[in-house]
Amino acid sequence: MQHHKGNADRPDEHGETVDWISIYKHGEHGEAEHPLKYAFLNFFREDPKTVFKQLKRKDPREAFWGIFELASFVTTFVILGILNWHYICFLLPFWYFGHCLSYLNGYYRHYGGNPDEPIAWGVSTYDKLYNWTWFYNGYHAEHHLRPKVHWTRMQALRDQIIEQQRAARVRVIKVPRALGFLDPDLPPHQRSEANVKQNPFAFSNPGTKAFGKIKSSRYNPRKNEPLTVELTSVSVNGRNVAVKTNSVEPSSR
């Protein structure tokens, strides 16, 4: 309901996201949560009351049918459980792990995307068999940019914006999203301040800013010292992380 309003946004200063299922909502340092935590814990984070309030505000009739559907679901399975309790024991694991698989699939639809760049909000995969089977579900970056475009027009949309996507470095994976953890170019999961301090450039993405100072010697006709660059901080997701590097002479090549 809120997914296309927040588009997997990062938490604000109060730790809240517009997108209820954003992969960044429960992460650290503005980064994505670990995929296993996201997949196995999100089932217990769902808040039916919040969903009901949003539905009721949007359309009271939709809220009524939402309650009706939930009540019918619960009633049906309570009756089946009374008739044969083994049924509930069989159902619950599949119901839970089905949700987990759905969340895992959703995780890799956005992991490695850029929540600050609309054209790169989603992560796409262009495997033909996968997209033919799942109605071009792999075109997720395109879907986030133009959510009202019908799935039969996704390829045409991509053809129109492909140069913009390349410029924005839209992430593309080779495998279906549920198997996103097998992608050979998977970004690291943690980009904490400690990691950034240790190696400022290992975790740099498009939009990462580095700050420093340039030193040069005073003019001396007999001897000129080379220009040196010293890195003092790196801006990661809008947060300045202080770093300390030795002065480096820029390469003359």
Describe this structure in words.
- It contains nine helices and three strands; from the N terminus they run H-H-H-H-H-H-H-H-H-E-E-E.
- The protein is mainly alpha-helical and 253 residues long.
- The protein folds into two domains: 3-182, no CATH class; 193-242, no CATH class.
- Strands 1-2-3 form a three-stranded antiparallel beta sheet.
- Helix 4 (60-83) crosses helix 5.
Write out the strand line-up for the largest beta sheet, numbering strands in chain order: 1-2-3
SS field, number of helical segments: 9
Shape descriptor reads globular
Calculate the terminal CA-CA distance, rounded to whole Å: 53 Å
Brief overview:
The chain is built from nine helices and three strands, in the order H-H-H-H-H-H-H-H-H-E-E-E. By secondary structure, it is mainly α. Helix 3 (48-58) packs antiparallel against helix 4 (60-83) and helix 4 crosses helix 5.
